[in-house]
Amino acid sequence: xxxxxxxxxxxxxxxxxxxxxxxxxxxxxxxxxxxxxxxxxxxxxxxxxxxxxxxxxxxxxxxxxxxxxxxxxxxxxxxxxxxxxxxxxxxxxxxxxxxxxxxxxxxxxxxxxxxxxxxxxxxxxxxxxxxxxxxxxxxxxxxxxxxxxxxxxxxxxxxxxxxxxxxxxxxxxxxxxxxxxxxxxxxxxxxxxxxxxxxxxxxxxxxxxxxxxxxxxxxxxxxxxxxxxxxxxxxxxxxxxxxxxxxxxxxxxxxxxxxxxxxxxxxxxxxxxxxxxxxxxxxxxxxxxxxxxxxxxxxxxxxxxxxxxxxxxxxxxxxxxxxxxxxxxxxxxxx
Length: 335
Fold this sequence. Notes:
With 335 residues, the chain is of the alpha+beta class. The chain contains eight helices and 13 strands. The chain has helices at residues 2-7, 19-41, 104-108, 149-160, 211-225, 228-232, 289-293, 326-333, and strands spanning 91-98, 114-117, 121-125, 137-138, 142-146, 171-172, 182-189, 192-199, 240-241, 246-253, 283-288, 303-309, 316-323. The longest helix is centred in the first third of the chain and has 23 residues, at 19-41. The radius of gyration is 42 Å and the shape is globular.
């Protein structure tokens, strides 16, 4: 170092130490550093403190998305999570009211008023139809929508508790009332797979030992019969008319001069023989949506008393229609 600085031209100003003194200072510093190093190497000597190596900062992991929220029942219904099938054609909860003293056309078009499927799909009558017991005509189209799992849990909890289905018997028919309809509940949830039939629901009699159960059934029926309210409260997503792929068509003979103006037979590929007789009244055949569209409007929630001229034009028959629900369509296609 002394040689390096000695070769440089003198630049010190008057009164300052000359450059050779700076060289001497550097030499003393080097000697002092060597001495300290030697002392540190002696036995028992402590190593001079050294700066800790910088701590390696781990790379920030990719942010983990939070798990989806676990559905919980609505506080208005309460209860824990209830197991149920999850298939699009698995019936979880269903209600159907039928029978009694009603026109035969009504029996031919009878269908469940409410069905909840495992994937949350619901198919239900939009509202009570005053023409349901009339002489004929179109019925209110079924509606369909989708429930969240939270909504399903709330409804199932309500059906099992307030609706009394958890402990219900298979049938409640001990009512001294003639020609009343029967309401049937189907449940497949919470470890239960049952069908409960209740005769003359809502027609309570004094001293009925099943009054508590029947009161619960009536409350549940009111919820399911007016399920469109759930869409208005946000339980359902957007609802729309249920547009079935298949329809059950029942053909009856019609007496001359029957109601309505008969239309011509609409199907070129179908004859009377294609509507076979069976265990039910009349002749029954499943028609496609396109075949029904040749006869009347679709989607169609059910229609009674459609007069049609036979293919030979010599007589008139009457058709009743009702849409098949998703589980019924699947059963028919797999039969």
